[in-house]
Specification:
ABC transporter involved in vitamin B12 uptake, BtuC, Iron ABC transporter permease, mainly alpha, single chain
């Protein structure tokens, strides 16, 4: 009898036991296997390095690995290969920055919305940026990339602010479903206005269509310098939201039980997402599928912990963008296929495979 009572007492959770009440933030999440995580991290870094080297070496004029290394260790301005490598550096840096921003923003957006199919378009960011650029071209005659950057950033921020304000109305606040619905509705409305402007002005259409498809070509250090402060701020803010997103993944009620201010957490995360998406869209145009596919690939070896998903998404996404850009440069010589088209061609089949094989479990 005493043995039975003792066993029963041992089975009752005490106030200090892990099963009593709410667990510490992030401890409800299954930990990734250390070997798998280490191997995945090493693979991501290797793929990123290979993508950077390929971006510098391949194009209309391919450069050998020897000349590529000499361009950095013993640069000769009179050497054509060295000059080609250095001319590709701004393009590669653009791909690194835009890819990191899109990958990190996509992972954070899926965490905020708790929707595995969320991407930067869910908050109307791309639609807002595109309409702002079209308005600048049509009304003010802006045709330079430096002008597009500020217009796209302001349009993206304004659109996301409108979406969040609309979704915040009502007793429940900005729930994931309301955010998605508000973003879809605003994107449809802004898209209609955009096409209305384009069909009335051929000059605007000609100027806008090269930016709309998304590309890394034609970007210089001036364009990178104008966007860099915003990108760094967005990377810092969003990169520090891993624990917040882990709590939000447990549900709003569970997050409140852990002492987290859900509305404030979602607002901070959304701010970082807007800054990243707006900056990346301004720099490289609206590029699809990068922020959608990469977080699913990363989860395969990190598990659901956003403290690992966020940084690794920021490392792997540039590899996809640079790889797509490099592939677009070599398949249509002497011309090239824009990176935005290539990411859609590469990303769509990969994402379909991920959905079919992993069932895209809800977040």
């Amino acid at each position: 009898m005493k043995a039975a009572v003792s066993a029963q007492e041992r089975s009752v959770p005490t106030a200090g036991s892990p099963t009593a009440g709410s667990r510490a933030p992030g401890r409800d999440l299954p930990a990734a296997k250390p070997r798998r995580l280490a191997a995945g991290t090493l693979l991501v870094m290797t793929v990123l390095l290979a993508a950077c080297l390929a971006s510098l070496a391949f194009g209309a004029r391919p450069v050998g690995i020897g000349a590529l290394l000499e361009a950095f260790t013993a640069f000769d301005p009179a050497n054509g290969d060295h000059a080609v490598v250095h001319s590709r550096i701004p393009r590669t840096v653009t791909g690194l920055l835009a890819g990191a921003a899109l990958g990190l923003a996509g992972a954070a957006m899926q965490g905020v919305a708790r929707n595995p199919l969320a991407d930067p378009g869910i908050l109307g960011v791309n639609a807002g940026a595109s309409l702002a650029v079209v308005t600048g071209i049509y009304a003010f005659g802006i045709t330079q990339l430096s002008g597009y950057i500020w217009l796209a950033f302001l349009g993206a921020a304004a659109a996301a602010a409108v979406v969040y304000t609309i979704a915040s109305l009502g007793r429940e606040g900005a729930t994931p479903v309301k955010l998605a619905l508000a973003g879809a509705a605003l994107s449809a409305g802004l898209g209609s206005l955009l096409h209305a402007v384009l069909v009335t002005s051929r000059d605007t259409l000609e100027s806008f269509r090269f930016w709309q498809v998304g590309s890394l070509s034609g970007r210089d250090w001036d364009a990178v310098g104008q966007v860099l402060p915003f990108l760094l701020a967005g990377l810092l803010v969003t990169g520090c939201t891993g624990r917040l997103l882990n709590n939000l993944a447990l549900g709003d009620d569970a997050a409140r039980g852990l002492g987290q201010q859900v509305a404030l957490s979602r607002a901070v995360s959304a701010l970082g997402i807007v800054v990243l998406c707006g900056s990346a869209t301004a720099l490289a145009g609206p590029i699809a599928f990068v922020g959608l596919v990469i977080p699913h690939v990363v989860r395969a070896f990190t598990g659901p912990d956003y403290r690992r998903i966020l940084p690794l998404s920021a490392l792997l996404a540039p590899a996809l963008l640079l790889g797509a850009d490099t592939l677009g440069r070599v398949i249509a010589l002497p011309g090239e296929v824009q990176a935005g088209i290539m990411t859609a061609a590469v990303g769509a089949p990969v994402f379909i495979w991920l959905v079919r094989s992993r069932k895209a479990a809800g977040l």
